[in-house]
Specification:
The chain is of the alpha/beta class. It has 15 helices and 6 strands.
């Protein structure tokens, strides 16, 4: 006698489906595709792979042992090259859109956020390879700029790069894409710029960035204070102390999901970091929802 057991979909998978519905991710890229593995299921598998912090081959072996195939209603687990090719042909902007849509799941408004940069080391090229290329300098990390919510510790937006561009160049772009939900921005001295402050004020966003110390001219010492001095008096040290919360987010991602990427190409390295941030958001949202449900029951 054959017995059919119910399929239990975990919260991680359901959150991926909700995000893809908000962003409008199509299940197939072409009308004549085989439709064996939809884009939504591939996004879930890629995020799950980064959550487990393992290689593609190891991840496929783990999926064949647990109930992933039955939960996703698949005839068979996709080959590891299928996941690799999906990451290569999918644009980084799609994963960034999914990260920006995470705030809608928690309905975040008037957010007090912090912005800061960090780096994820690259396992490729190896140290041996660097010694064999005539001492040419190779950047061995992927620079990332995170914009996080101080209250929920959710990543609101991010920008990744593999060149030597300073992180302050991504300040305006990172904030403008989610400016409709921001109320306060905190940043360190690396973002000290009059143009950055004016940009936030023009978008009705309160900003607190510590001022760097410059030598004053004789007129500034004895005459009327400059505009920079006037703005420096508005700086709130108590509010700025909340900026340290973003450092805990950077540490949480690197300790749980790994502070390195295995990809070889620069574009794939940036995508991997973006997927890590997406996996962190999904895991964090699922934990937050469970806590809210428990509090309501009590």
């Amino acid at each position: 006698m054959n017995v059919l057991y119910g399929i239990k979909v975990n919260s991680f998978c359901s959150l991926v489906e909700q995000l893809c519905g908000i962003v409008g991710v199509k299940n197939t890229n072409h009308f004549h595709s085989k439709k064996m593995y939809g884009n939504i299921k591939l996004v879930y598998l890629i995020c799950k792979k980064e959550q487990l912090n393992c290689s593609y081959r190891r991840f496929v072996e783990l999926c064949s042992e647990d109930g992933t195939q039955r939960m996703l209603c698949l005839k068979r687990i996709p080959h590891f090259t299928t996941l690799q090719k999906f990451v290569q042909r999918t644009s980084k902007e799609l994963f960034e859109m999914l990260i920006k849509a995470c705030r809608k799941l928690l309905n975040l408004k008037d957010v007090e956020a912090s912005i800061d940069g960090t780096g994820f080391s690259n396992t490729n090229p190896s140290h041996y390879y660097q010694k064999r290329i005539d001492g040419a300098e190779v950047k061995n990390y992927t620079k990332t700029v995170f914009l996080t919510d101080n209250k929920t510790k959710l990543i609101l937006n991010l920008k990744t790069t593999s060149d030597k561009t300073h992180e302050t160049n991504y300040f305006k772009q990172t904030i403008s894409e989610v400016a409709d939900c921001l109320k306060l921005i905190l940043a360190d001295k690396g973002y000290d710029s009059s143009s950055n402050r004016k940009f936030c004020w023009n978008n009705n966003i309160e900003v607190h960035i510590p001022f760097r110390k410059f030598s004053e001219s004789r007129h500034q010492e004895h005459g009327t204070p400059s505009a920079r001095k006037i703005h420096e008096r508005r700086f709130d040290k108590i509010k700025y102390n909340q900026r340290a919360l973003i450092e805990s987010v950077n540490s949480a991602i690197k300790q749980t999901l790994g502070g390195f990427v295995r990809a070889r190409k620069a574009s794939n390295q940036q995508k991997t970091v973006t997927i890590k941030a997406l996996a962190y958001n999904l895991e964090h949202i699922g934990r937050t929802i469970k806590i809210c449900i428990q509090l309501e029951i009590q």
